[in-house]
Structure formats: C-alpha cells, structure tokens
Design goal:
- Helices cover 8% and strands 20% of the residues.
- It has 122 residues and is mainly β.
- The protein is built from 2 helices and 6 strands, in the order βαββαβββ.
- The chain has helices spanning 66-71, 90-93; strands at residues 57-61, 73-76, 86-89, 104-105, 109-112, 117-121.
- The protein has a domain at 57-121.
- This is DUF2961 domain-containing protein.
- InterPro entries: DUF2961 (IPR021345).
C-alpha cells in the first residue's frame, strides 16, 4: 500500500539497533497445532516482558463464530498495573464493532471476515 511521505512509511521496517521479540502459538513439535485453546471463564497470557518495549504488530485468528468477537476480551497491562490499560472485546479492538465480522483494510488494521483473520500494525 502506497501511503506516500508519512511517518507510517517505515512502519514495517525494523530500526537499526532495535531488538525484536515475538510471542507465538507455534507448534513446537513442527506440526500444525499452532493454536491456543482458552476454555470459557479462563484467561491466557499472550506475551509478557520486563523492561521497556513497544508492541508493533498483532496478528491472530479466531474460530469462525461471530460470538467470539464479543465474548473474547482483550486485556493489556503496563508496568505492573492492577487495572488494564486496554479492556475491550476482541472484535471492538480490531474495528469489528457489535461483533459483526466484515472485510476491510485501513492503514493500521485489516480484517478478513471469511477466515476471521485479525491484523493490527501500531
């Protein structure tokens, strides 16, 4: 996507001297079980780090069930907070309000409703 001369032009580039980390559900056996199951009422920590850092990209999928967009709640905590800085349904966070799965592309967010792919660039 050509976005011209903006500060977003280098969004996907890793700056010199910056170390990158990633959290993933990859299948450590080399198979195709690259997913996490979160039982009802349970929580799952997607990533946790100590020290300064920033989130640049979030990519995930969910089962093709519109209810997941409302029932799965995303919480983000910074610096040992007790109260989350982000607390919202998964669909709302990715721009899919009212749990309505739809296809759209913007500079920061893109969704593919037919396969429930959720992508965010920060």
């Amino acid at each position: 996507m050509d976005i011209g001369m903006t500060s977003l032009g280098s969004l996907a580039e890793l700056r010199s001297g910056v170390r990158s980390k990633r959290w993933s559900s990859y299948d450590k056996t080399g198979g195709n079980a690259d997913f996490w199951i979160v039982p009802a009422g349970e929580t799952l920590v997607l990533g946790e780090m100590k020290g300064p850092g920033c989130i640049r990209h979030i990519w995930m999928t969910t089962r093709q069930d519109d209810n997941n967009l409302r029932r799965l709640v995303l919480r983000m905590y910074w610096d040992g907070e007790i109260t989350p800085s982000v607390l919202c349904p998964l669909g709302d966070f990715f721009g899919l309000g009212h749990a309505v799965a739809t296809w759209f592309v913007s500079i920061y967010v893109q969704e593919a409703a037919n396969i429930m792919t959720l992508t965010l660039y920060i």
